[in-house]
Specification:
Order of helices and strands of chain B: HHHH
Oligomer: heterodimer
Structural class of chain A: mainly alpha
Radius of gyration of chain B: 19 Å
Helix content of chain B: over 70%
Strand order of the largest sheet of chain A: 1-2
Radius of gyration of chain A: 18 Å
Largest sheet of chain A: 2 strands, antiparallel
Distance between the termini of chain B: 49 Å
Strand content of chain A: under 5%
Number of strands of chain A: 2
Number of domains of chain A: 1
Chain lengths: 278, 129
């Protein structure tokens, strides 16, 4: 297989990964890395470098659409980005020191968790809320648009959210993924933000978080142009199409089928890590 | 009235950020695509070698190295330039937010945003890490 054929194969896989990643809410980055390593035999360091680049592209592309709708909270996003960028920097430095077998195992676990989290129903916290003193000082209380006019919300547990976001950043930098699943726990469950606000704000933050590890990846030679090119172009086109059809498709059965596939892939990553074949 | 002014500025800020992100991603994808054509025409029939990690060549790992090779019209360097534009897009968003918060006289968030910008700059100057 020459470079043209290989690039085409990677591109097609990336379109599919981007498409499924956007339909299921897992994100394209977490799907393309196992495809590259397990199916195409790419070294995991090149794979996470290419995946990280595609994560920045999808996040920026989607955020451009979201930010105008007025759901994302720029102040909450910016404040939590202190935690995610610090974490990402640390995670990326850790990735350069850690054996690839360990990265593969952690990747498998993160994949399992993400599949589990995305298949679980999310519980919206409704009703009046008590403004939290710290969140108020940080000007995080806000409103979001709904059919019945603006709805107010007041974030809680800022320190817990901040710490979880640091963890999300470490995972993002270590594995070259967006860590949407951890960001959702931080914002939905700890800080009790409404879904639309947490989903769009998290997406908004992913690009900045990934940019913090990109510098380290670039200088360590993880970002290979020949591989990152088809991955980035493919994941972006796939997720654009995914976002278009998302409104029309019933994703419930898709999530179940896909959850099973992801679980198998995750065990494969862990197994390969344990046997040292990656 | 103060509330009115703030909302208006937030709206403008959000529009600008949206445009900035869209422009960055589009430009980056166009440059990567152009680089891909050059690269595939010249090297498309060679064999890929991603199975073993050797690291990207040293002169494609830094901004100065990439720029030198872009001027020599090397396909891989043009792709890297497109990826650099992509990485710069969220950084530009953060830098833009510093200005926007300053216009709103929100000192707290100017400070918060500057911290984020400092961490990003530290990473991007990262060859010394």
């Amino acid at each position: 297989m020459n470079i043209i054929e290989f690039s085409l194969l990677v591109w097609v896989s990336s379109v599919l990964a981007g498409f499924l990643g956007s339909l299921t809410g897992l994100g394209g980055g977490i799907i393309i890395t196992p495809v590259l390593t397990l199916a195409l035999g790419v070294d995991i360091r090149y794979a996470i470098g290419a995946s990280l680049v595609s994560v920045i592209a999808t996040s920026s592309g989607a955020a451009a659409a979201y930010v105008r709708e007025g759901f994302s909270n720029i102040r909450i996003g910016m404040f939590l980005e202190i935690a995610t960028t610090l974490g990402a920097l640390g995670g990326a430095l850790l990735a350069t020191k850690m054996p690839t077998s360990a990265i593969s195992i952690i990747f498998g676990l993160a994949l399992l968790y993400s599949a589990y989290a995305s298949s679980r129903p999310r519980h919206e916290h409704v009703g009046d809320c008590q403004p939290n003193p710290l969140a108020t000082r940080l000007k995080m209380n806000s409103v979001y648009p709904s059919n019945d006019g603006p709805v107010g919300y007041c974030p809680q547990a800022v320190p817990a959210g901040f710490s979880l976001m640091f963890g999300a950043g470490v995972l993002s930098g270590l594995l070259g993924i967006g860590s949407g699943a951890v960001k959702v726990i931080a914002m939905d469950q700890a800080m009790r933000l409404p879904f639309k606000v947490s989903t769009t704000t998290s997406n908004f933050m992913i690009g900045v978080t990934a940019a913090a590890s990109a510098g380290v990846y670039l200088s360590r030679g993880y970002i290979n142009p020949g591989l990152a090119m088809p991955v980035m172009l493919g994941v972006v086109s796939g997720s654009l199409v995914g976002a278009r059809v998302l409104a029309e498709v019933k994703t419930k059965w898709l999530r179940v089928v896909f959850g099973v596939v992801i679980a198998v892939v995750a065990f494969e990553m862990i197994y390969h890590g344990l046997t040292g074949r990656l | 009235m103060a509330g009115q002014t703030r909302r208006w500025t937030d709206q403008v800020l959000e529009d600008w950020i949206g445009n900035l992100l869209r422009a960055g991603v589009t430009l980056s994808a166009a440059v990567v695509l152009f680089g891909a054509c050059v690269y595939l025409v010249r090297h498309g029939h060679e064999l890929p070698h991603y199975r073993v990690f050797a690291g990207t060549p040293e002169d494609l790992r830094s901004v100065s190295g990439i720029w030198k090779n872009v001027l020599a019209l090397k396909g891989q360097a043009i792709i890297q330039l497109g990826l650099l534009i992509l990485i710069a897009t969220p950084v530009a968003r953060v830098a833009f937010s510093v200005v926007a918060f300053a216009i709103q006289r929100d000192r707290l968030y100017v400070f918060v945003t500057l911290i984020v910008l400092a961490i990003l700059s530290y990473s991007l100057m990262g060859s010394h890490l």
